[in-house]
Amino acid sequence: MRPSETGLSKKLFIKTYGCQMNVYDSARMADVLAPLGYEAVDAPDGADMVILNTCHIREKAAEKVYSELGRLRSLKDDREGMVIAVAGCVAQAEGEEIMRRAPCVDIVLGPQTYHRLPEMVARAARAGGGVLDTDFPVEPKFDFLPESSAPSGVGAFLTIQEGCDKFCTFCVVPYTRGAEFSRSVAEIEAEARRLVANGAREITLLGQNVNAFHGAGPDGRDWGLGRLVRRLAEIDGLYGIRYTTSHPLSMDEELIAAHGDVPALMPFLHLPVQSGSDRILAAMNRKHTADDYRRIVDRLRVVRPDIAMASDFIVGYPGETDADFEDTLRLVRDVGYAQAYSFKYSPRPGTPAAGRRYGHVDEAGKTERLAVLQDLLDAQMSAFNQASVGRVLPVLFERTGRHPGQIVGRSPYMQAVHVDAPRDLIGTSAAVMVTGVTSHGLTGVLAAFSGRPMHSEEVVAG
Ligand code: SAM
Ligand code: SF4
Description:
Layout lengths: L2 H4 L3 E7 L3 H14 L4 E3 L8 E6 L6 H18 L4 E5 H7 L1 H6 L5 E3 L7 H11 L3 E3 L21 E5 L1 E2 L10 H4 L4 E2 L2 H13 L4 E5 L8 E2 L5 E2 L1 H8 L7 E5 L8 H9 L6 E3 L7 H6 L6 H14 L4 E8 L6 H14 L3 E6 L18 H26 L3 E9 L5 E5 L5 E5 L8 E10 L2 E8 L14
Parallel strand pairs: 1-2, 1-3, 3-4, 4-5, 5-6, 7-10, 10-13, 14-15, 15-16, 19-21
Antiparallel strand pairs: 8-9, 11-12, 17-18, 17-20, 18-19, 20-21
Helix pairs in contact: 9-10, 10-12, 13-14
Bound molecules: S-adenosylmethionine (SAM) and iron/sulfur cluster (SF4).
């Protein structure tokens, strides 16, 4: 019997900030709390428990969490017994400071301890709050998470790796998420099969450093991501596999080869480079040069000529000169991106770059560089989208659109494609003739529907 049927149902609202890994973690927190009678709702009003699953990557992340907590405090004043928890990377980094500054918070937990949530809820109820658990426990949380039986979206996320040992000088992740850890192949495969049985047709494998994956294989050896992808591609009903986010240093030959001969591995890769200047890459401790990155892209394009590239960039890293920035623009022109995220460098407390006292680029300089870079990236993205017009692409439909009769899916290159078509195509892949580009993505018409997965090489390019 479900908790709602027993009358014991409690409402759980989780607000998720940041990346897909947090989206995955939020879903798993809901799974962990389900046996206690918590059911997810989509607003905090009237909720018995609110979790803010925070991200520390963006600037002023902690301040945004404190202002959200201010709003929640008034809800809590009107609802006796409401539990407020702060999870994720801000919780990991701020710990006791959150308890001190926001006494309305009952529980503070880091990204590695959410399998202990039921016990924290019980402790908070007994003690009237004040529960802090930001350990990096010896037992991996994945061993303690219940199997999710919730229906999957057509596109599902699956965390295969966590943490990072790369220590880029600007980044908080190694401190908030801890050391690299990979799940076992068997565990990942079992979760992937469950996701597919629950409706997923495409799975995005997640990790802070996903291509550093080295999980125990069924043969007792460590498997890399290339091998894992091949294994997962054998699952019936799984049409597409993606992975994010990768580091150039961990793009090994096995993984590159998989891009050439595993049709389910989608021809789109988010491979952040951060800068095109070797001097800045060295200062960032990225441990590769701009030409190393160019060579990786070339090798990928040899095995998969239509692969579309995406990246992250940071402008105004301490010491970045106009010449360094020009190197970044040159790299962008050489590679040609279909999608990118670009940021002004901003110091994160506790990171090596934040401790540098000299060479900081002033705000106006960063703003100007960011605008120039974004103009170039926007132009590349528009050109990429325009080049899709007239092509027939396989589109995996995920949901209904905003207009009646419209459904929305993704192309292999992560473009949103809007098509007037029957709703029952959601969850299937169909060939779509792209007819136009809008600010929300592409529009198209059904070209043919085969009722079976189609990969890009099966449809005729225009
Ligand atoms: N693991 C990925 C990699 O190695 O590139 C990136 C992970 S990080 C969560 C996401 C992005 O946030 C980074 O690629 C970087 O561009 C940006 N970022 C991280 N720290 C930053 C900082 N201090 N200032 C500006 N942008 C930052
Ligand atoms: Fe952060 Fe990515 Fe560098 Fe790791 S590899 S320290 S997650 S930017």
